[in-house]
Amino acid sequence: MFTSVDDVTARLADTGYLASPAVATTVFLAAKLGKPLLVEGPAGVGKTELAKAVAAISDARLIRLQCYEGVDESRALYEWNHAKQLLRITAGRDETWDRTRTDIFSEEFLLSRPLLTAIRGDDAKVLLIDEMDKADVEVEGLLLEVLSDFQVTVPELGTIEATRRPFVVLTSNASRELSEALRRRCLFLHIGFPEEELERRIVALKVPELDTVLAESLVRVVGALRAMDLRKVPSVAETVDWARTLLALGADRLDEEVVRASLGVVLKHQEDVQTAAAKLDLDAV
Amino acid sequence: MSTADRVTSLVRALRAHGVRIGTGESVDAARAVAALGLDNREHVREGLAAALLHDQGQRAVFDPVFDLYFPRTVGAPERPTGPADRDDLRARLAEALAANDRAALDALAAEAVDGFGGYDGGSGFSSQQALDRLRPQTLLAQIMAGIRAGGGGSGAFTDRIEADEIRRRIEEFRTRVRDEARRRVAEVRDRDEVARRMPVQTPDRTLFLYAGKDQLAELRRTVHPLARKLATRLAARRRRASRGRIDLRRTLRGSLSTGGVPMNPVLRRKRPARPELVLLCDVSGSVAGFANFTMLLVQALHDQFSKIRVFAFVNRMDEVTDLIADGAADPEGLSGRITAEATLTGWHGSSDYGTALGEFVERYGAAVGPRTSVFVLGDARNNQQDPNLPALRRIVRTARRTYWLNPESRAQWDTGDSAAGVYGDVVEMYECRNARQLSALVGRLLPV
């Protein structure tokens, strides 16, 4: 899939995803070793984006399983199409029971959900299991078979094995501790806040119209905010939002006035805004 | 040393520091190194971390161990140092810090250790000694002045955060020096031995009783995710518990109409009661950090309980529930406010559990009922006073459950003036020395 780590970096950059060495290395290894990739980190640092970018560069179909509390087998794996099965039974009234029975549990009546879809077929696929920590613990058990052997067992049909392994990305905000068994099957990647230099490049890429000097001081202020003891520190997504806001405001330099007016774009709690204002000494002027 | 050997030694060292790594992961690590090659050290580092680690907290252990087994260079730094010139080095360091030139900082750290850190005729290296001679923290003013004189900085506003940035870089440089010294030591001594002895600190293992100010701040930052994790766990447990058990009496009565065959099982419906919690915290000097941290955790878990009441004591007991509720925005001043606004001490300033427990039973006895869980937090060091067991027994009798969390190591219980054993006979006492233990205990002990 990829020839080297630098190859991954370059091709990800082509799609507009600037990867740190850690990200590029792990993506390369996940493809090379054929292991799922578990990505953790705060919200808004580009975990989901990574899966999309990998799908884009490897020309693969992106299959997404969005987890939530209560997601279950029939949402994640497969389901029998009961309505169609009933129709089939009523349509063939004269048949023997044996025929009907074997018939209605065949491929035709199987509704394939994300995990099964990702296993079947010969085309290249990226399976994104998003916000794994939101799902109940039971779902993890369900995933284990898929992630270690890339197969799904349907009792009526037998085991369906992948002919071509999908590239699997799991994301988590760590709001729940994932099980050791699941972690063991994955390569682990933590995407934190980017280095100053990388974040500057991200801003430059996403908001190219913004003045470079302004972008630089913007990234520095965001860095200072992250060093504070806030309830929710700004993420990359918020840095980009802020850059867009400054562009819209037509600000040409970052001063107290501008920061005070637009601090709400990066900080989402009133107490955080107050803390930051006090620390940055905004009210002193 | 072959690569396979390096990987297995690395794994062994990590295991010695409590990172759980299975054979499968070691094999993955070796495959990762094979796939990546050894050309780029950062790639090898990230690849091994991806294969071996399971959460970000373990990075604090992994990085220094990795540096030992996959060192950046071998031997003394390339630059011929000769008799090291302290002022010259400081000048170059100031320059590199101002420019945030990572490569230069790495080289300077190596030079500093080589020039100033050596002792024992070259077989030992001390980062402390090197840092004492170099004193990088005193460079701040000089660097700031240099930047201002050079007209750097893009305006008054960003200059304000400049100082903080430089301070952070200096701190990073100190870490670099420490890593470098360790690497040089490992070269002359037994690498495995150095790796095993290396002190590592992850925030959730910081001992409450010895945590410094910075570490407490770090711990506070771990409280929020921790509280969220516990909250989901409690919610799941509560959901499971509310499915209920079979109500035998009503099932049997319903079965009368079917001749005694229980056709419809009746489930006992649980009253949707959220548990109540009472905390008794020893906030005397020795355990203040611990109590403070626990109170924060409980504050964060607030919506999991219908009622929380927090009491603090040194030798007098006073209710501080309101102070804690008000203090949501300012966790830092919490302990200060509690000592300032509550009556916690009587005639003397040292802990007296007996008197405090007695006062609690007398004044606030009504706070404890059959739905209440009581947590006593303290080291049970009673200063040879009367332990007043009847008071504690009364609490245990009225409460649904009572636990005692002790921030001292089990080995120290019952030594000196500790009354841990005496109290431990009356309530279940648990050792709770760091955030990891605390979260495990709270998750296990908190009522459904």
Automatic annotation (TrEMBL), chain A:
SMART domains: AAA (SM00382). Pfam families: AAA (PF00004). One of its GO terms (molecular function) is ATP hydrolysis activity. CDD domains: AAA. SUPFAM superfamilies: P-loop containing nucleoside triphosphate hydrolases. It comes from the Bacteria. Residues 33-197 form the AAA+ ATPase domain. This is MoxR family ATPase. It comes from Streptomyces tabacisoli.
TrEMBL record, chain B:
It comes from Streptomyces tabacisoli. InterPro entries: UCP010256, Uncharacterised_CoxE, vWFA_dom_sf. This is VWA domain-containing protein. SUPFAM superfamilies: vWA-like. Pfam families: VWA_CoxE.
